[in-house]
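Re: the pair you flagged

First of the two:
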Amino acid sequence: DISSNFDYEWEDISSDGILINFESNDSGTEALNIGFDFPFYGEIYSEFIINANGWIGFGEDNTEWYNGNIPSTDAPRSAVFGFWDDLNPVNDNCNDSCTGNVYYHNNSQRLVVWYNNVAHWPSGGFEDSFYDFQIIIYPNGEIDINISDIIGNFSATVGIQDENGENGMQVAS
């Protein structure tokens, strides 16, 4: 279900968030502890990954940066897409335009992943485009996607899908 309440509460993790280090602008992290058991499409997950391209997942990493409609077997699976697009956060192989960091913080009440002023890959009219958003998941299965700022152009996919890429909910694309 999508709530009709579009107000959001930004979770400030600036003082206690853990900085993520990505190998490249399309890679994800190793498995990280959620901090609780998270129910998602009939499965229970205790670990997750963070991908540089604006999504978190509960399985294998997927370096696909060309976002599209979901559900789809071509898209990352089992995933929450906060702002899936060809993003370019600070990483080990930065080019001249990589900008913005990704942080996460977890406890027994919620997991927050914050993409802080992350740049889009600079091509096709996306030069000087930056995004500030959060993905928050809760032990009861609820998911919040908070978008604070969008500067410049965007073409992101926002939504969720299951591990088979057959069931999902697209909010935007």
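Second of the two:
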Amino acid sequence: MLYFITSNQHNVTSTPNLVIKDSFSKEDYSFILNLGLVGIDFETNGLDAYKHKPLLFIIGNPTDQYVIDCNTHKLLIIELLYLCKDKTFLGQNLKFDYKFAKIHYKYSIDKIYDTMIAEQRIIQGYDLPCSLDAIVERRLKLIPKTMDKQIRLEFVGKNPDTFRYSNRHIEYAAEDIVHLEGILIQQSKYISMYRLSFLLYDIEFPLILYLAEAE
């Protein structure tokens, strides 16, 4: 199920798979607290965490995704990040998300699994793309319907106070975490086969956080 959390009026309509809410329920908190791996992603209006602003924060797993309006629910995002402080955050190119979490929410992520970095190490030596849609197609044999980068471009330069989301924006944002656990499962086979555990878990993933701090 997909949930859009906002207190503003947008051009988003409820569907059988999309629920619009203005707050988190006890059941929502319980779901997040019981996650083993926490899929996260930020949609922003630019690439520089100092100059640009987060628009949407996405958290959840393959079955349930919460797309949260950063403009109306900053305190909720801070609360959710801190509630998950002992969990492993799962994402694609998490250095980007770390910087926005640190600068805008004063939160330092400790444990991560980055599907992009894992894929780069698994296929090193081969000239293959490591974008999320490419990894989904390669590892899961799926062609995502909503991973249209034209939708991503609609976020660029937008004012969080005036931009109005449509269903396609919310669905696009959510799909960025829908496939992460499936990718991890498939990548784990190669990590074991190629003996990459030490390289990834002890060097590469911790290094991402240090690089983010440096940048």
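Strands lie at 2-5, 18-21, 37-44, 54-60, 65-69, 88-91, 112-114.

-B.
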